[in-house]
Amino acid sequence: MTIDLHAEFGSAAGRPALPKERSHKRLRSRRFWPFLVPALIVLTAITVVPWAFTLWMSVREFTVGGTNEFVGLANYARLLVDARFSEAIWHTLFYTFLSVLLPLIFGTLAALVLHREFPLRGLVRGIFVLPMMATPVAIALVWTMMFHPQLGVLNYLLSLVGIEPQGWVFHPATVIPSLILVETWQWTPLVALIVLGGLAVIPREPYESAEIDGAGAWMKFRYITWPMILPFLMIAVIIRMIDALKSFDIIYAITQGGPGTASETINIYLYSVAFSYYNIGYGSAIAVVFFVLVVAISLAMLVLRQKLHWNEMAGAP
Amino acid sequence: MSISRRRFMQGSVAGAAGLLTGAVPAFSANVDWRRYAGTKLEANLIKSPRGELLQKYAKEFFDLTGIEVASEVIPEQQQRQKAVIELGSGKPNFDIVHLSYHVQKRQFDKAGWLADISGFMKDPTLTDASLTESDFSKVGLDYAKNQAGELRSLPWSVDYFIVYWNKELFAKKGLSFPTSFDELASHAEALTDAKAGIYGIVGRGLKNANVALYGHLLLGYDVEALDKSGRLTTDTPEGIAAATYYQRLLTKSAPPGVAGFNWAECQSAFVQGRAAMWIDGVGFAPPLEDPEKSRVVGKVGYSVMPKGPKAQGSATYGDGIGIAATSKNKEAAYLYCQWAVSKLMGARLLQTGGGVPFRNSILNDAEVRKGVKMPGDWVDAVSGSGKVGRPGLPVIIPVAEFRDIIGIALTNTLSGADPAAEMKKATEQFKPILEKSEKA
Fold it and tell me: Which residues are CB-contacts of B422 (< 8 A; sequence separation ≥ 6)?
């Protein structure tokens, strides 16, 4: 038989709460409201209202300067047969996957190097993080010039080692990998900084014990460093994933989704539909589906995080 | 401080004389220019030589009228979006708007966003006697009027597609300027020397932008993208032939990566002397003759597009300036629009190579022509293209979708796709969008 202690004896004090105490608690909880309400109002105004409005627009045939009528789920039905949208989903996932993976690999390697003691380490670290601080559109313009098939420096460099000139962002087959190259160049420092933070908090003792036990460099990395930095990598993955999924400025400024639709991600397509075709209703339906996709991926990441117990591995509470 | 009309006229003439070689009176004394002195206006302009010219000489307008104009100049794509969204809201923050006819005309007409200025044009106290409808080129007037024949804007600047060609590269191969489509393609192929990094031709391959070039080629087959009954011609034998020709030009004799080229990349290749020909708008000419930006100064030929298999044509695109229907200062705004397309401002536009006015009285003025800084070939190409000019894009609301869908098909042909299959597929894809838009 189980006994409900709270029912039997009241609250934490081990006795039933007196009426005076209960009313005091209620009063105290009411006192919180004036502090909560402004935040709730702002939150509602900037997230809930636009979101509800987007949902409302997504079930309407709504064009700027044109029609505005209820069409039910017609916009969503159209998405199912819209080949350009399906292609954009694939481009988004491909772009996101590599834009997370590559900075993760290079950022971790860079952090391991930058964590070591060497002369002018501070200066090197400072230079290393510069790409992250640059304005995306400025970066895009510089890279566009570098990618130019005839006048760009990249093909010139390739020619020095006898490699044929490439089409880079000007060819459908190489455009997404080229954009990922820019993304990787810009965001590897962010991952490196996060991992450096992780490396900085690893105590010296486990390494000393491992050395006494005869562990080599790889064993120390595999069994000490890697598990300890894993929670930090998880944070880097989540930040990068969110950033890569919503990436717009670099792609738009360099290719505008081209050549053809070869680099058109959901964001770029959504922008075209809403602000070039002025079809706000259909654009809203794309936004809703995109939102669902982002939530689904985020939930998958959370589930993965829970299943792998990455926090516990690092000894975090 | 008020200025007497006589004093103002003297000032205007003196000011204009520095620019216009002949002493052409700038503004008629019949118009009461200062009737709306003290009014404040907002103007929404495109970042371009046109918009920047108005900003540069804004003080002259203020001195002339006493009307204060706050203008914002925004990059083209963003300006178009801002203008549409603000006008669509019913409460635009501007009185005057700069519009791209080839993209926005039908949308603006159908939504009724611009004020009818037909009455203002007939009012001699508001309109300079030299500003008449007959002074505008036909294509300009067609752009400015709606289906009911009401004048909804003033035609401002026209852009014709011409052929820029590198005379030095032509001379090296012993070639002269082509006289037909076939010759243009074969010349381009002959001029291509990939090992030396020289290509016969360069043109827009980037989706959306490339439809401006395709629309230009289509005219050589004597069709426009939309026929007189409103049917698409992009999947007709002529439409497919134009796409096949486009594919031939940009795959056999254009630089690699041309599928991603907009006008800026084309211009870069041409000014570096890497392309023997470039087909694009006349407005891109000034940097070619600027020693700081170009390696082909003095070597550039400017010509009207050669005759196609069925006709000779030049795709014509244009800008206009109009007044928001909701503006409370329409008459004052009209004075500003009139000043923008005036002979003085038009001459400045032409002489700096920043654009070509729609007004024949400016183009045909020998004194104005004398002041043009661009080579004589350029003026001839402009004038010759005007004679064979036709709209390069269909005047429909979903023009951006048209450009994207057809543009994607064209870009696909550059990767080897069959032009007939691509154009048929794209046309089928666009048909329901067009039908829906026309029904709405």
Answer: B243, B409, B410, B412, B413
